[in-house]
Amino acid sequence: MSSDDMKKRAAEAALEYIEDNMVLGVGTGSTVDYFIDALSRIKHRIEGVVSSSEATTRRLKTSGIPVLDLNAAGPLPLYVDGADEANRHLQLIKGGGGALTREKIIAAASERFVCIADQSKLVDVLGTFPLPVEVIPMARSHVGRELLKRGGQPVLRENFITDNGNLILDVYNLLILEPTRLEAELNNIAGIVAVGLFALRPADVLLLGTPDGVRAMRS
Ligand code: 5RP
């Protein structure tokens, strides 16, 4: 079975968490695209969606799903998003699509975070996937030096500007043994807008698509 088929399985399984008249948050990426396709079939049951990126907003609108503003919608009961890596504590690396800041805001504002992924995303230790960090442009070199001091190898994502007008540094060679400590430490570096480590606010449920079905892990 292809990884796309496994992503689709996980995405379809997330429909189980939708309740009537709900406003939910939706992330970004290819797995989320499958979720939006599935959501469009039951769009009459929901009030709308708070979107984590311009790309997701476009896809939601094309599917006829109302897009709502987080400030107006208030705290959300549910957030559904993918991940680049997940460990067994449901701590994640995200931001492969560059939408990490808005994703983090919506995850923080949501009561339940359901992460959807194919089984290849489950790892023992986070950090093989380079950690995306969103950076204010004038702070690029400063933040790069701070990341080097901590043993990471920051690489500027070429030809990429985030929806917030910032840059992404992808940080290689970080063996993330203490995800919450590292996230808190990186959050304190001036010029970093958001770190793609979701450990202080991990997922509550991880739905992993596998060739045998969907494996659900809960915190
Ligand atoms: C976007 C993300 C995505 O959730 C992550 O990159 C996974 O993407 P995909 O579902 O395409 O594998 O964090 O910023």
User: Which molecules are bound in this entry?
Assistant: ribulose-5-phosphate
The main sheet comes to: 7 strands, mixed
Name of the CATH architecture of the largest domain: 3-Layer(aba) Sandwich
The overall number of domains is 2
Gross morphology is globular
What is the CATH C level class of the largest domain, in words?
A: Alpha Beta
Roughly what fraction of the amino acids lie in strands? 25-35%
Distance between the termini: 27 Å
Strand order of the largest sheet: 3-2-1-4-7-13-14
Structural description of this entry:
- With 219 residues, the protein is α/β, with parallel strands linked by helices.
- The protein has two domains: 139 residues, Rossmann fold; 66 residues, Alpha-Beta Plaits.
- The chain is built from seven helices and 14 strands.
- The strands form three sheets. The protein has a seven-stranded mixed beta sheet with strand order 3-2-1-4-7-13-14, sandwiched between helices. A four-stranded antiparallel beta sheet has the order 9-10-8-11. It has a three-stranded antiparallel beta sheet with strand order 5-6-12, with helices on one face.
- Helix 2 links the parallel strand 1 and strand 2.
- Helix 1 crosses helix 2.
- It is globular, with a radius of gyration of 17 Å.
- The chain starts with a helix and ends with a strand.
- The site of ribulose-5-phosphate has 17 residues, from helix 2 and helix 5.
